[in-house]
Design goal:
The chain is α+β, with helices and mostly antiparallel strands. It has one helix and eight strands; from the N terminus they run H-E-E-E-E-E-E-E-E.
């Protein structure tokens, strides 16, 4: 095999390895995210949401999400920017009445919505599947 053909083959192999590495990073693993992520928050509780913050899973250092103001209860919604970091996050929400909840291990790379709802045990739930990012299970 001549040298020029060998170099061409090596370039193709290098490109294939780089491409497969990119796909692996996008496959839902808790790798660091690139670019800005957005999360649509629906407040289906009866209380105003006044703060929202994100931390690495099981972390203690939460970073506040910028909100344009309180998010009224009763199915109001807004989109917040997710601070840069890993895909898997703990999300803390705080309400006007002093209650706060932590939603553990939200994959912000695979889901673009979070619905806050009061149920039998209180807490939060993911948006229905049809409101999540296309291609997620």
């Amino acid at each position: 095999m001549d040298v020029s053909r060998l170099i061409a083959v090596l370039r193709h192999v290098t490109a294939a390895v780089a491409l497969s590495t990119s796909f692996a990073a996008c496959a839902g693993s808790p790798v660091a995210q690139t670019g800005t992520r957005h999360l649509r928050v629906v407040n289906a509780t009866y209380e105003d949401l006044i703060a929202m913050s994100f931390a690495p899973v099981d972390g203690t250092e939460f970073h506040a999400a910028a909100m344009s103001g309180p998010l009224a209860g009763g199915r109001a919604s807004m989109v917040v920017d997710v601070p840069a970091g890993a895909c898997l996050r703990d999300v803390r929400v705080a309400f006007k009445d002093g209650r706060s909840w932590v939603y553990p291990k939200l994959d912000v790379c695979r889901s673009d919505g979070l619905q806050l709802a009061t149920g039998p045990s209180g807490g939060v739930a993911l948006l229905p599947e049809h409101m999540q990012v296309a291609g997620t299970p």
